[in-house]
Structures are given as structure tokens and as C-alpha cells.
UniProtKB/TrEMBL annotation:
The keyword Cell wall biogenesis/degradation does not apply. This is Glycine cleavage system H protein. Binds 1 lipoyl cofactor covalently. Keywords: Lipoyl. The gene is gcvH. The glycine cleavage system is composed of four proteins: P, T, L and H. InterPro entries: 2-oxoA_DH_lipoyl-BS (IPR003016), Biotin_lipoyl (IPR000089), GCV_H (IPR002930), GCV_H/Fam206 (IPR033753), GCV_H_sub (IPR017453), Single_hybrid_motif (IPR011053). Belongs to the GcvH family. The modification N6-lipoyllysine is found at K63. The keyword Cytoplasm does not apply.
Length: 127
């Protein structure tokens, strides 16, 4: 299971890569493998300010639909348009081309509550 050390993780299986006050958000390798073949990504929260824990979109796989939650509070400033025509990128490259949204963080202190890679591995039982 791929769990990059430089990322932070939520207990809801989102990852976050922070670059100043901007962050990229996606779902973890573990989450995409649990979902199976992803067929649709719905992100309708562009330009919305959302609090940590609020739903920012959803991912539809062949057998299920799963909500995507904000790992920290912020404003969604960009959606990965590639996923409209190629949602399967989330399966093949969840940490790079398969990112879901880019946000402007409004409460940087919330980052401290996220898990590091080792904490996330412990959460999913992959130590």
C-alpha cells in the first residue's frame, strides 16, 4: 500500500499535500483500492468555503458511492477537470494526477490534527 511520507491524512481516507496556504486533496491508495473501479467523480464545491469534515464531493465506483470530506477548512479554488473524462486516474495515480481538488486553507491549525503517514498506516492496519 502506497502511503507517501510527505503527505498528511484524514481518518476518512483523504490525503492532503500542503504548499503554503494552498493544498491539494485526494483519496488514499487504500481508499481507491477499497472502492474498486472508479467510474465517476462529482465535485460541485468549486468556489465554496467549507469547514473541516463537510462533504466536498463524491466518488462513484462500480458497486458503491462514497462521500469525500474536507480534511481542513478552506475554499475550493480548483477541481481536477481531467477526472470528468478519466475518473479511473484516481485508481491508477491517486497521489499525483488523481488529485480531486485544490483548496485555500482558512484554518492552518487544523493541519496539526491530521495523521502523518505512520499514523495513517496504523489506522488502516498496514504497519
Amino acid at each position: 500500500m502506497n502511503t507517501p511520507q510527505e503527505l498528511k491524512y484524514s481518518k476518512d481516507h483523504e490525503w492532503i499535500r500542503i504548499e503554503g496556504n494552498i493544498a491539494y486533496i485526494g483519496i488514499t491508495d487504500f481508499a481507491q483500492s477499497e472502492l474498486g473501479d472508479i467510474v465517476y467523480v462529482e465535485m460541485e464545491s468549486l468556489d465554496e468555503e467549507l469547514n473541516e469534515g463537510e462533504v466536498m464531493g463524491s466518488i462513484e465506483a462500480v458497486k458503491t458511492v462514497s462521500d469525500i470530506f474536507m480534511p481542513v477548512s478552506g475554499t475550493v479554488i480548483e477541481i481536477n477537470d481531467k477526472l470528468e473524462s478519466e475518473p479511473e486516474i484516481v485508481n491508477s495515480d491517486p497521489y499525483n494526477n488523481g488529485w480531486l481538488a485544490k483548496i485555500e486553507i482558512s484554518n492552518p491549525d487544523e493541519v496539526n490534527a491530521l495523521l502523518n503517514a505512520d499514523g495513517y498506516k496504523k489506522l488502516i492496519g498496514a504497519e
